[in-house]
Sequence to fold (140 residues):
Amino acid sequence: MNYTKEQRCSETFMDGWQRRQCMKGAVITRDNKPYCGIHDPEYIEKKNEKSRQKYERELNLRVAERVRELNLRVAERIAGESCHKINPDNPRAVAESIGDMYNVLKRCFTYLEALNQTVYPSPLKLREDISKVLAKVEDK
Fold:
């Protein structure tokens, strides 16, 4: 359908070297200017905001993934260095026994809790150290 210039959207754009007016019919008026559904400033703003939010979500996911990767690399380096300090001849054996050491510390902690801290006064320091190690391992 052909619209008169007054019935058309007021948005203009460059077509080669010429400025042309949108050929679509106006469906809404904003600031005393007629706009079609595509060039409506509020529609454009909503569309742009939706795109910005999508971009920010994707960016946040990429940044979080990168941070996880870097933290893993740092943890691997620290673990490797620590295992080598404990047993320079066989750091792999230390690494393979970390899970077992953690479980033993958990059991020791439970045992010391059961003693109710009153029967043996000397385990208090040990209990405190074990608690610190477990908290560190469990990231508390």
